[in-house]
Amino acid sequence: MDYLYVALGLVGLFLGGDALVRGSVGLARRMAISPLLIGLTVVGFGTSTPELLVSVEAALGGVPDVALGNVVGSNIANVLLIIGATALIWPIAVSGATLRRDTGVMVAAALALIPIFALGEVGRAAGLALVTALAGYLVWAYLAPGDAVPDEADLPPPMPAPRAALWLVGGLVALMLGARFLVDGAVAIAQDFGLSEAFIGLTIVAVGTSLPELATSVVAALRRQSAIAIGNVIGSNIFNVLGILGVTAIISPIPVAPRFLVFDLPIMIAASLLLTGLLLLRRAIGRVLGALMLIAYIAYIVSAQG
């Protein structure tokens, strides 16, 4: 039954990813706003819903390492695994002032966790500060959304706004259901093999809840919508730290194990800086870089188990 859950989860994720990209592009063209902004907000935040559900449930269930590992591990997977896999399919190239702003917010959010983790707990005050920062970012993104969508030949023809919204909502629902099936099945299988809860939280649960981002970014790459693919990852990383960790801490303060401050958080910060540097300096992430990022993620998985 666990393997059936995994199979159903994968189907739900990829069908949901296709629907989400279709709806997102449709709305972007109808509203004449940047696909990058759509990816950063609706797609990026929407595909982070599984992380929110898992982290809140873990914190309330007295498993803080899973709640925290889910956020940190998901952000590492978003950059090294998802961007790496997406670049193997289609080179990623997005530029502009909007990208510089949002990658800066992503890095700043990651760095803000250093003093918070050093205190040994993500308390309610810190959670409220993170959520407030997220609200400020959303206002900023709305007031400065970036360039309008160019009418390029490779973009799909515009669809009616209600149909685009239906695709988008349906995609989010399918992604959430697919992620739940996949995580439940994967965790059960991992426990059968005797893996620890800490390792499950940082890797299997983190990757499982990041699979909506993976599915959405891969589908976006296949449809040559690199702006949505990269916006999805950056927006998800911002929302994971400011929104998910913030909301979870407000509901239930999260103790921080020492390993997060000395090992996992530095890797998350390094991954964020790596992505920012690649996007702002090279303007493109090709297949070779994508393969190297996947190798780096495998190395992290191996070291995390120890």
Strand content: under 5%
Rg estimate, integer Å: 18 Å
For the residues shown, what is the average pLDDT?
81
Question: What overall form do the CA principal axes indicate?
Answer: globular
Distance between the termini: 30 Å
Number of helices: 11
Total beta-strand segments: 2
Helix content: over 70%
Strand/helix succession: HHHHHEHHHHEHH
- Major beta sheet summary: 2 strands, antiparallel
Main-sheet strand order equals: 1-2
Low-confidence stretches: 147-155
What structural class results from the helix and strand content? mainly alpha
Task: Report on the architecture of this protein.
The chain has 306 residues and is mainly alpha-helical. The protein is built from 11 helices and 2 strands; from the N terminus they run αααααβααααβαα. The protein has a two-stranded antiparallel sheet with strand order 1-2. Helix 1 runs antiparallel to helix 2 and helix 3 runs antiparallel to helix 8. The longest helix has 32 residues. The radius of gyration is 18 Å and the shape is globular. It starts with a helix and ends with a helix.
